[in-house]
Design brief:
395 residues, elongated
Length: 395
């Protein structure tokens, strides 16, 4: 094939993939965001968080969604694009012109490489940045408006390690009465505080909250056997929200960069369970972007085989493949967390299985053989029709 024709063909295929990819990316991202809209709306309505802060929270959540939706959208784009090309007999025309199915893989893998690079950048840089920035902004947005979040006769657990209940709260004077506080910030000696009344004082500059409690008592369990009661006329309970997200063995591995994960895996004395979580997360960030190449091998043959079923069927096949992939991924993660298999095997298991499946499907399609998955509906319909005719035939 002349280079000019080859370039035209490649650009045409890239265009066919790009449009459904962008639409799929927007739809999948919107669907995932919908699950968070109600909680974010509660921040505006119940806690008085500005809409601008909520918009920033949405921005910080995008990396954790894009990390998933880019491979999903790529698979959907391949199914729709090659399903249309096959339905309009354009693939047949290419074959009659001497272009095999292998000859059109170049633009597909080029698009897969671009999607892989984008997903990897999000994984390495944007994902830990977004998670950390989201938590920091969420804490700051809520904590400086903590007085708004307290409601009469409602258990409030917005504060880490604390559950606060007040019978009456005056939003004007910030006076409270009928106070019950469960404090488990010190997990070895949790305490329960009762007070007849008190006052809430906040310091937005220091991101601190102070509860001045009047006429009450502190009930505390010590060493899980000794009981201690301290009564007070006045007691100040301070809550400092100026938290720094330093990388220590107990920090959530989702907030760590690659460098921090590698450093955490080398810290002496890390418990085996935490070390496995670090390794699983490390290999997950390497394996999941590679799914773009895996879906390239699967999406092309499935799209070509699905030429008569329309876009709705392509979307259904996409969801079925993604569901199967995530089920295998979840199984692998569970095996890794239980130390049944190594973390590298646990996270790469879906890619290995789906690459094998993709090679099989691609060879069957390149050899113009129908995949049994698409023959089953026709066989079931033919069987049902034959049984119906036999039943209607007079004896």
């Amino acid at each position: 094939m002349p280079d000019a024709m080859k370039k035209t063909l490649y650009l045409y295929i890239l265009k066919e993939i790009s449009v459904p990819f962008l639409l799929g990316f927007a739809v999948f991202t919107f669907v995932l965001l919908m699950g968070r809209f109600m909680k974010l709306a509660d921040l505006v309505i119940a806690k008085g968080v500005p809409v601008s802060d909520v918009a920033r929270l949405l921005l910080y959540m995008l990396p954790s969604f894009s990390f998933i939706t880019i491979p999903m959208a790529f698979l959907l784009a391949l199914l729709l694009a090659f399903g249309r090309l096959s339905a309009d007999n354009e693939i047949t025309a290419l074959k009659s012109g001497g272009i095999s199915l292998y000859g059109i893989l170049t633009p597909v893998f080029f698009f897969a490489f671009v999607a892989y690079i984008a997903t990897s950048i999000i994984t390495v840089y944007a994902l830990p940045w977004g998670n950390t920035a989201f938590k920091s902004l969420l804490y700051n947005a809520i904590n400086v408006r903590v007085n708004i979040s307290l409601k009469d006769q409602v258990f409030n657990d917005d504060f880490p390690g604390l559950v606060i209940y007040v019978a009456r709260y005056d939003e004007t004077s910030h006076n409270i009465s009928g106070v019950l506080i469960y404090d488990e910030r010190n997990t070895e000696e949790p305490s329960t505080i009762f007070a007849r009344r008190g006052m809430i004082m906040t310091d937005p500059g220091k991101k601190a909250l102070r509860l001045r409690l009047i006429d009450g008592g502190i009930h505390r369990m010590q060493r899980k056997s000794d009981y201690q009661l301290m009564e007070f006329d006045s007691y100040d309970l301070s809550i400092n929200f100026d938290q720094k997200y330093k990388i220590v063995p107990t920090v959530n591995e989702l907030d760590m960069t690659f460098k921090e994960l590698r450093h955490a895996m080398g810290i002496p004395g890390v418990t085996p369970n935490i070390l496995r979580d670090y390794r699983l997360e490390f290999h997950r960030r390497l394996a999941f972007p590679f799914a773009c190449f895996v879906f390239a091998l699967i999406g092309v043959p499935l799209g070509l085989q699905n030429r008569r079923s329309g876009k709705s069927s392509g979307f259904s096949i996409c969801l079925a493949v993604l569901l199967t992939y995530y089920i295998v991924l979840s199984i692998g993660k569970t095996l890794g967390q239980n130390a049944i298999v190594a973390p590298v095997i646990a996270m790469w298991l879906p890619n290995l299985l789906f690459i094998s499946l993709g090679i099989y499907l691609f060879k069957k399609t390149a050899g113009e053989q129908r995949i049994i998955l698409f023959e089953l509906p026709k066989q079931i319909i033919d069987w049902a029709q034959s049984r119906f005719v036999t039943w209607r035939k007079p004896q």
